[in-house]
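From: lab user (bench 3)
To: helpdesk
Subject: output format question, protein + pyridoxal-5'-phosphate

Hello, I'm new to running complex predictions and I'm not sure whether the block I got back is the full result or only part of it. Here's what I submitted:
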Amino acid sequence: MFDIQEIRSQFTILNQQVNGKPLVYLDNAATSQKPNSVLEVWNKYYTELNANVHRGIHTLSQLATEEMELSRRKVQKFINAKHDFEVIFTKGTTEGLNLIAYILTQKLKKDDEIIISYLEHHSNIVPWQLLCERTGAKLRVIPIDENGILQLDYLDQYLSEKTKVVSVNQVSNALGIVNPIEEIIAKTRKNSDAYIVIDGAQSAPHFTIDVQKMDCDFFVFSGHKMYAPMGTGILYGKQEILEDLPPFHGGGEMIATCSFDGTTYAGLPFKYEAGTPNVGGNIALGAAIDFIGKVGQSTIQNHENALLEYAQRQLLEIENLKVYGEKANRTGVVSFNLEGTGISSDVGMILDKMGIAVRTGHHCTQPIMDFFNIAGTVRASFAIYNTFEEIDSLVEGVKKAQRMLS
Ligand SMILES: *Cc1c(COP(=O)(O)O)cnc(C)c1O
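Helpdesk reply: Thanks, we reran it on our side. This is the complete output you should expect:
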């Protein structure tokens, strides 16, 4: 059914040598590669359609607008949003989270509380710290145990009428841990009126997303981690919430009328899309969703889980190798260290010499590293085009690094 060589043939970039060895690309949690179908759509936009959207009467402008709006509806279907105007184009997860934290400013006051978790990316920490500085609100952080699993009894303790925001990721980028967001959302709804924000940067590439079933208020993700170009991303927000909240950036596109006596704002989604958007990228994001649909989300998930299981089993056979979050429910990522043999970047450099691309360091999650009392980890992360042979190369590489470093 699933022909991996056929998939790989759609990714020209994979077919090359790095440092004299076939490229083994295992840094997909940082960014995935893009299939030719996405690059062709991007190229076609700039060679045949390029024009500014929503403002031209001329044909190219109308065609570009239609294509971008078609892409918005593909995203709507992809996450099962109720309305297409609940889908806002952004440049990525970071922008989405900052936007939400900014527009919530008026809703928070001194001593209100924002709950996040220990497993968050810096982009789901710092915007909330900034919001706390603006409003005098306080940040509370759900701790983890030695397997990296969230300790939800703390959430029970923290939730109160003071809680105004709960923001957690569905999947941790550093460890690949899948968080029980259904339970987190249910507890939050039951015990507070908080806005619920889900960082889906690492779940949208791997899972079927249903924002209505999930019942979150906001869901954000990046296009570039799911086969789309960089500089693309999505902010989903519930209609009544986005209508109630103020705009973020002011400028073109987001106004209904503008005068020096006062300006009125456009309706959704344009209220949150000031300025010229990344039209080519947004259209190509639709092509990436088509790619995922064609391969099949369950095929992607099953393959990536099989790779993870295969990688973890072999890596754990290496002596003095520790996998972080070993016993947690995970997807797409194995994060590890060779204990007693130097730092993660040394391992990463040796792997690079063998053509193997992994991420090393703190993965924009310093609190997790502090918790485990380490500077960083070696992180291998998977996509649909990775093979079991590539995992074998990784394991060989890690063994070699261990020999060289000890
Ligand atoms: C990558 C990532 C982000 C930030 O995404 P950008 O594309 O860099 O804006 C936020 N959260 C998680 C979980 C991520 O993996």
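A quick orientation on your result: Residues 92-94, 121, 123-124, 169, 173, 199, 201-202, 222 surround pyridoxal-5'-phosphate (CB under 6 Å). Let us know if anything else is unclear.
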